[in-house]
């Protein structure tokens, strides 16, 4: 149930703005242009609908798939760790926050492997100018759907896994650091308020803050993935160390830092909201659904016992 809920909420988030933020971020990371210029280029033919280029079908598949796979991986890890979580009988065992952090990394790993082919296809659509020139979203979606067979035919089936090792590692670091920073912020709030339990608003604030702090750690890896999977690198083997070395030699450490942090604003916005969604809102919705189910079952049991 939690897997389905995570997939549904992730899809709604991406449709209602998450995909557009991702689009701006990837364009920023691969071109270095100002956000205003990127927005004009994306919307000049289709208007604001252009911000959904790549959403159908690949962005939608990513939204549902990454939410569902993460939810499954996280829930599976928490289930596997259930016997090691600290309680009064096992004071030296794993703490609940530590189990959450580990499970976040496990969920992220499986999410990275599952999402890589779809993310590559989505990135190719976002970074190929020919898709901006199509005037209707339907024609863009149709062309996007054909892209998978074109890549397999011209570059081979393994091309869809290009950058998978980076993405899987990035997703582990993404979700481990997100859960870690959320726990840090939550503990800071508890110390400040002298309360043992946080309100939903406080948990939400901690999720957003934790996501943004995580972004500061993982943004270089995010730029690497976009660089490897961009349309202009199709069929090429991208050597990231060589790319970084050439930037360092030509522009110095400042140029390398600027390149490695491209798209930080869009990335931080997306990560903060995604962490809020997956860490706090999805869990809250799941609790409400479970509570409603228990209430319904209790009422049914009472009726049967009368």
Write the CATH fold name.
Mitochondrial carrier fold
Principal-axis shape equals globular
Number of helices: 10
Poorly predicted ranges (pLDDT <50, ≥5 residues)?
none
Radius of gyration: 21 Å
- Portion in beta strands: under 5%
Could you give the order of the helices and strands?
A: HHHHHHHHHH
**How many strand units?**
0
- In helices, the fraction of residues equals over 70%
Total number of domains: 1
GO cellular component, one term: mitochondrial inner membrane
InterPro entries: MCP_dom_sf, MCP_transmembrane, Mito_2-oxodicarb_carrier
Organism: Sphaeroforma arctica JP610
Main location: mitochondrion
Describe the structure concisely.
It is built from 10 helices and no strands.
């Amino acid at each position: 149930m939690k897997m389905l809920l995570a997939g549904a909420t992730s899809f709604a988030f991406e449709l209602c703005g998450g995909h557009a933020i991702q689009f701006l971020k990837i364009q920023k990371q691969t071109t270095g242009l100002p956000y205003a210029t990127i927005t004009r280029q994306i919307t000049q033919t289709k208007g604001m609908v252009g911000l959904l280029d790549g959403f159908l079908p690949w962005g939608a598949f990513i939204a549902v798939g990454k939410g569902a796979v993460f939810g499954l991986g996280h829930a599976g890890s928490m289930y596997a760790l259930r016997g090691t979580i600290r309680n009064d009988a096992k004071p030296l065992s794993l703490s609940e926050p530590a189990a959450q952090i580990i499970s976040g990394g496990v969920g992220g790993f499986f999410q990275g492997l599952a999402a890589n082919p779809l993310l590559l296809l989505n990135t190719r659509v976002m970074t190929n100018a020919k898709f901006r020139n199509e005037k209707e979203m339907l024609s863009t979606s149709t062309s996007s759907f054909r892209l998978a067979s074109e890549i397999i035919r011209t570059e081979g089936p393994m091309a869809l896994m290009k950058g998978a090792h980076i993405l899987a590692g990035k997703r582990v670091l993404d979700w481990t650091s997100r859960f870690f920073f959320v726990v840090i912020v939550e503990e800071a709030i508890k110390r400040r308020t002298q309360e043992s339990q946080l309100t939903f608003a406080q948990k939400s604030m901690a999720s957003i803050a934790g996501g943004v702090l995580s972004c500061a750690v993982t943004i270089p890896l995010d730029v690497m993935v976009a660089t490897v999977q961009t349309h202009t690198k199709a069929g090429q083997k991208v050597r990231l160390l060589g790319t970084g070395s050439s930037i360092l030699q030509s522009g110095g450490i400042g140029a390398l830092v600027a390149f490695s942090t491209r798209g930080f604003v869009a990335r931080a916005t997306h990560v903060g909201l995604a962490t809020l969604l997956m860490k706090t809102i999805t869990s809250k919705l799941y609790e409400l659904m479970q509570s409603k189910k228990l209430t319904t079952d209790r009422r049914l049991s009472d009726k049967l016992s009368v």
